[in-house]
UniProtKB/TrEMBL annotation:
SUPFAM superfamilies: HesB-like domain. Residues 3-103 form the Core domain. InterPro entries: ATAP_core_dom, HesB-like_dom_sf. It comes from the Bacteria. This is Core domain-containing protein. Gene3D superfamilies: HesB-like domain.
Amino acid sequence: MIKLEISPLAERRLQEKLGEQPGVIKLYYDTEGCGCDGINTLLIQDEKGQFDLPVDAGNLSFVVDQQHQIFYEDTLWLDAEENYPAFKLRSKSATYSSNVQLRDMRHLAAQ
């Protein structure tokens, strides 16, 4: 199981985006349309998907697709900067991205 340590600022931003609506945050390795490496993204979904595995992320409900789990180390850190809207995802040996976008997909499922 992946362990995701989240900075206080990153957690506050995620909680604000979740609001009062239920949702689960998915650590997603988006390879669609990419000719090379994928793009790390955070997706807010209504619920856990059929092939999603839990991520140990403290107070937040996080998952990762079982096929995408191989792209990540066992322990990750998610951080944010005060004046920058994206997140930073890193491990002990790599910076996965300093521009991880958060997309709320909950409204798309209702359409």
